[in-house]
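Checklist before submission:
- one chain only
- standard amino acids only
- sequence pasted in full

Submission:
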Amino acid sequence: MSTAPQLVVHRDKELMAQAAAARLITRIVDAQASRGSASVVLTGGRNGNGLLAAMAAAPARDAVDWSRLDLWWGDERFLPEGDPERNVTQAREALLDSVPLDPKRVHAMPASDGPHGDDVDAAAAAYAEELAGAAGPENHGPVPTFDVLMLGVGPDTHVASLFPELPAVRETDRTVVGVHGAPKPPPTRVTLTLPAIRAAREVWLLAAGEDKAQAAAIALSGAGEIQAPRPGRTAAAGHCGCWTGRRLRSFRARCIRRLRRDRRGRLSTSSPERLEPLIEGPPAASAFSVSDTL
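Returned file contents:
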């Protein structure tokens, strides 16, 4: 169910990570209580790993039945297994190695030294097949209906490894593709596509740093998808971690100016309707998390 866009302001990136971790634990526990299991798509980077580390430190993590949790990834660097730059390697260090997960339910994207060798397109096709195998009749599509899907956003507005202007962002049929020539190293990657991302019940967009405010707002605005991939069609909620005082007010004002909605409810950058920020407000169908600190 779609709800009105929200922008939730946090004091700093540490509080943002803790708040997002608490909400994620709640989402997982609720999903397990209602459906028997939960499905989450992880993101890498500073904020994704910060959230996982906050989950590891949270006493409430023991409320999760880790054996009934499926973990997927939104994208991955196509590097050898165990490479410290791989998202799954960093996730294991931050959280996964410290909780009793079922190894069969940890769905890492293929590595470059795996069964597909250096064929990133074959690796992507294999991950798409794994997703399709996990989807049930109730999902009505080739991927599971993820309970929460988390994404980062780059200063260039890329989400997952969907970079503006590259072919992957135009994909409408396949759920997973190989990425060649990414402008951010390494150039070869595996990524979910927008159709797969939009299958999630909730999409959370995590960003940290003042430079990400404009990029995140554009990514959720009415800009064309080729220039700014939009992760979801549902409403967006913002968890923004900022300094207090003048910098906080300035940052909130920038977010408000850049996140508008037109008369049809679509996010745009020109509508006069204001998107009011909230302090520690409730989550919505999608989450937008930004921190003004590095």
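Reviewer check: The chain has seven helices and 13 strands.
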